[in-house]
Amino acid sequence: MSNNGLEGYDFDDLQGSGLEGYDADEILGALAKKGGLALKKGWMPRPFAPGVPKIGPRLQPLPFTVTTFAAGTAAGTVQQVTADTQKPFRGERLVVVLDRSAGAAAVGINISRIQVGVDLQQAGIGQVPAAAFGATAVGVRMVADANEPGVRVAIDYTNIIAVPAGESVSVSTVWFGRTLT
Question: What are the sequence ranges of the domains in the chain?
Answer without folding.
Answer: 1-45, 57-180
